Amino acid sequence: MPPTLYTSGEMPLRKLALGLVAAVLLALSLVGFLSPFSGVTSVRAQTPSLIALPRSETVYMGGAVWGPITSLNPFSPSNSQLDDYLQSMVYLPLFLFSPVTGGLYPALGENFTATSVTVPASLVYGPNATGTVDRAALEIWIWPNATWQDGYPVTADDVVFTLYLAKYFTGLSWSWMFSRGPGSILNITPVTEKEVMIIFNSTPSSPPWGTMISILTSYSYDVVPLHEFYPNLSAFFANSTKWNPLSWSPNVTQIIGDGPYRVYAYTPSEIVFIKWDNWWGWNIWGVPANGTYAPEYVAGLVITSNPQAISMFETYELDWGSYFLTNVWQLQSYNVYTYFTHSPWNLQYGPSVVLLINNEYPPYNITLVRRAIAYAINTSQLSAVGENTQELPCNISNGFGLLSPYNLYYGAWGKYINTSIIQRYGWTFNLTEAQLLMQQVASEYGWHKNSQGYWVMPNGAVVNATIIVPYGWTDWMEDADLIAQNLSKIGIEASTVFPTYSEYWTDVSEGEFSMALMWGWTGPLPATWFQYYVYTYGTAPIGSWAWADLERFTGPAATEATQAINTIFSTNPYNLTAVMPYYDELETVFFNDTPVVPLLLGAYWYEYSPTYWAGWPNETTGTIFPPANWAAPYEAYVLVHLHPKGVTVTTTTPKPITVTYTTATTTTTTTTATTTTTTTTATTTTSVSTTTVTSVTTVVSSTLSTLTTTVTKLVTSTTYLAIAVVVAAIVVGLIVWAVMRR
């Protein structure tokens, strides 16, 4: 029986009842927090869902969410799967970066400026400092017609509010931006209703490109509406911890976004979105007829195994999947297709599958043991057997995937990878070499073998490993079994365990594991990929939540790698002479110390059925964004370009922002707002009354299907002439851009 659909007026009356029965509902997986909307009566015939929707108006998708849906909080670290949907379809990032074209596309942001400002020295050096100093800054313009789904305008105040939340709640993923170190945020100020300025603790000659890129493109901290939580910025700064984003438990009416879809309803087994017909952004993405033909409803299903997804495709209950499906090409007889009609069937990226080795789990704190493990793994076998040849192996010949011609990021990454370092410190599959390394460790640390052939440490503990991957990820389950078999051949008592995704993610994030398969970050710069594994600022003690360096790689080498990453993100990426020494340093630490083992390139798992909907990206139509429905923040872009089968539409692909330069130098004076920040322990007043910008004028021309916008961008000096192009060419989120969802 489908759940009752409540009107918005009935929501307060049912809160008490929902609270009393919530535990029962969750245990039975029957009903979650229900929709405030009504009027839908047509029931699906086959799809195992409790929410009634008209089939011809609904896209059913799966592959991003693998555990029960219990909260709509987009800030919760444990809600990362659902965020792939919320922080794309409901909340927009400022800009979208295309790894295919290398271009920047509009979303909530219309344009931006890299510039410099003159600020009081006390802002940088403390209250006793006098005079002024120049600092790097970023100005962002929001689309003039951008509104929230409740009708209020999206403003610069909303951006200021969202970013400042992480200053007061360090559990938020962008709190590192307020570290007070070089490149950190000094001040965020609304300039006008639609313009915001972010000032950094960096000199104009060395702007914090990593932080700027993250702010511009990351979906992990999309802007949220200030007015929902505080009447204005002053009220927020006066009591900045009154509302806690980490413990927020919103119902469907409290999710107020700026994207093309609203939350309609959810249960533990699915979340349903409804099209916002009055969305302000149809034209910026070239959507025909103001979204008339886009799906009215989108249902994200919790499908807990790849075989279940196959069954649902075969019965036409699923339209869009992102799964590893064995022999996926055989589904063509059921009108199900992949991006390519030939091997490898899916677009590739990465390296995206790695083996995490917990450095806090003895003896994996010993580098030679980790290197022995690397030598013991046959990645070609993983590709052929575990991945059905749909994901390509990482090996020394393709730079462990970094230099593979099938890698969509090869063109962006290749020039930063030093092949001589890989040749010197890399490894190949060689069980004999792995055994010799283990014997060397045994001699040094006093190990011996037991009757089963496993190494025993002096304290009597057998060298063992349990490799964890989420249950239902059948390819990873096979990969883990193959790895365990080879580890046993070098004296490690290895086994596999397949917990639920929620259990897996909690264990990995809190460091409660010995080994685990894990995905990787992507981005235009390979430093982003390395950052996920060696960035000590993101790690945490065992038992506490980490957002990077999940394997707890610490010590002098890890510190050296982290410092190299920080320097890379504040250095002109086009100046290879300046940046390559730090990449060499980073790559040397990674391949020599082997904190993790790259295994496979990743597939953008993507299956679609044109039975009900047309307009799916494929090798014939091409694509500017990854088409997987776990590849946030791009799901909304794919969805709004779909149309019912049999309907003919003309879709115009928006063009990326292009950058041209002039040599004219101008001086511009801008007045910014005064921001007062108050916490429970101290009161700090930061005032920037006059901003002096001396710059090279840069003209940014953003040509869209129905809109042409010319914007003046300010860049500090001729040094920026080479640097500024980076922002337009390589913008991408640094925080979980393409987390591998199956």
What does this structure look like?
- With 742 residues, this protein is α+β, with helices and mostly antiparallel strands.
- Helix content is 27%, strand content 20%.
- The protein contains 20 helices and 26 strands.
- The strands form eight sheets. Strands 8-9-10-1-11-19 form a six-stranded mixed β-sheet, with helices on one face.
- Helix 9 (379-386) packs antiparallel against helix 13 and helix 16 packs antiparallel against helix 17.
- Mean pLDDT is 81; it is low at 1-48 and 658-742.
List descriptors.
disordered N terminus; six-stranded mixed β-sheet; 742 residues; alpha+beta
Helices and strands: which structural class? alpha+beta
- Tell me the distance between the termini: 29 Å
Query: Outline, from the CA principal axes?
Result: globular
Q: Order of strands in the sheet with the most strands?
A: 8-9-10-1-11-19
Poorly predicted regions: 1-48, 658-742
Mean pLDDT: 81
* Rg measurement, Å: 26 Å
Helix content: 25-40%
Secondary structure elements and pairings:
Layout: H1 11-28, E1 58-62, H2 80-90, E2 95-97, E3 104-106, E4 109-120, H3 121-125, E5 132-142, H4 156-168, E6 185-192, E7 195-200, H5 209-217, H6 233-238, E8 261-267, E9 270-275, E10 297-301, H7 306-314, E11 320-321, E12 348-357, H8 367-376, H9 379-386, H10 410-413, H11 419-425, H12 431-445, E13 448-449, E14 455-456, E15 464-468, H13 474-488, E16 493-497, H14 501-509, E17 515-518, H15 526-534, H16 556-568, H17 576-593, E18 596-603, E19 607-608, E20 613-614, H18 635-640, E21 643-644, E22 658-670, E23 675-678, E24 683-686, E25 691-703, E26 708-715, H19 718-723, H20 725-730
Parallel strand pairs: 1-10, 1-11, 15-16, 15-17
Antiparallel strand pairs: 2-3, 4-5, 5-7, 6-7, 8-9, 9-10, 11-19, 12-17, 12-18, 13-14, 20-21, 22-25, 23-24, 25-26
